[in-house]
Amino acid sequence: MDKQSKKEIMFERMSEKKKEVKIVRRIVLIITLVLLIVVGIAGFQAYNYVNDALKPVDPDSEKVVNIEVPIGSNLDSISALLEENGLIADARIYKYYVKFKNQADFQAGTYGLLPSMTLDEITESLKTGKVYREPLFNITVPEGLTIDEIAENVIAKKTKFTAEEFLAKVQDPQYIDELMVKYPTLLTDEIKGENVRYALEGYLFPATYAFYEEDPSLNLIIEQMLEATEANVVQYQAVLEEMEKTPHWLLTFASLLEEEATAQSDRQTIASVFYNRLEADMPLQTDPTVIYAMGEHKERLFNKDYQFEHPYSTYTNKGLPPGPIASAGASSIQAVLDPANTKYLYFLADSTGKNHFAITYDEHLANRDKYIGQ
């Protein structure tokens, strides 16, 4: 073989090697690109998954999920509990999130959490032992308001609903029936009594209510108040059964104290007066029932007003009125069940609102002359 042929063969081999190198490089490049794409897609998917797991599970949910965190629970078990109940998307991510935020010292207890809560809100709840969530707005129902006053002074001023819409809702027979099924222990047939003005009068608990949506429905507003009343009444169910009394009796009695009393001690003492008068078969003769019966606010009642015939008037009728005359707070409810031990049968309030009590009618007249001047 001559030198020329050897060179040609060498060049051919070199060309082939170059081609092979190019092909290998191209393959390596393609593989690298594929791997980068795969890693990128996986990273993007992982990023989206983690990002979604850091958000509320259901931002629009108003459903309360009750969970029990046992004593001695660690972060692993709490994270798993939250995921099992649909409150977080991923237990591992929540665990890492909590560690990253350097949060600890979760408290055991029962919690009513929502899938719409953020991880921070859930964490804060578990740390403080109470449900923490930032409300969009609050509604405050002061103690001693009637349903008419709640409609006009609370609902009409704080929500998109008019007083008339609210009153129509709380008087809707079908809705009342639905509520009686939903709250069977609290709402009994007594609320449909022949002379009861409003079925839900006295059942809308005075408190501050937090709402997490801009336009809560009337159903949600009303039922949140009913749930608060149920929580404050049902805890005394055993006591009521022992007394052979009902929640309606308790709320009716408590509403009288709410309208008459100015302090906790007064509530308990006034409760004793009412008990004493009931036992003595005397009419309760409490002015707020006359005002409620007349359906208009009055700063002062006159003799003719006390003769006003109406089922709610405790001047013309013995015993409690057909139903509550206002929404009573926890102090009044407790006072009914824990009255002072007295023999008082009479009381009156002076110009400052302070109540003065008496055992006999003569003592009562003396108090009237001394503190009222008539």
TrEMBL record:
Gene3D superfamilies found in the cross-reference section: Classic Zinc Finger (3.30.160.60), Endolytic murein transglycosylase (3.30.1490.480)
Coiled-coil spans in chain: none
Membrane topology according to the record: Single-pass membrane protein
Cell location: Cell membrane
Recorded catalytic activity of this chain's protein: a peptidoglycan chain = a peptidoglycan chain with N-acetyl-1,6-anhydromuramyl-[peptide] at the reducing end + a peptidoglycan chain with N-acetylglucosamine at the non-reducing end
Source domain of life: Bacteria
Family matches, as Pfam families: YceG (PF02618)
UniProt xrefs under InterPro entries: MLTG-like (IPR003770)
Signal sequence extent: none
Presence of keyword Cell wall biogenesis/degradation: yes
Entry EC no(s): 4.2.2.29
Site (Important for catalytic activity): E260
Residues spanning the membrane: 23-47
Keywords for the protein's UniProt record, in alphabetical order: Cell membrane, Cell wall biogenesis/degradation, Lyase, Membrane, Transmembrane, Transmembrane helix
UniProt similarity note: Belongs to the transglycosylase MltG family.
HAMAP family xref list: MltG
Job description of the protein: Functions as a peptidoglycan terminase that cleaves nascent peptidoglycan strands endolytically to terminate their elongation.
Protein name, UniProt field: Endolytic murein transglycosylase
UniProt organism field: Planococcus shenhongbingii
Taxonomic path: Bacteria, Bacillati, Bacillota, Bacilli, Bacillales
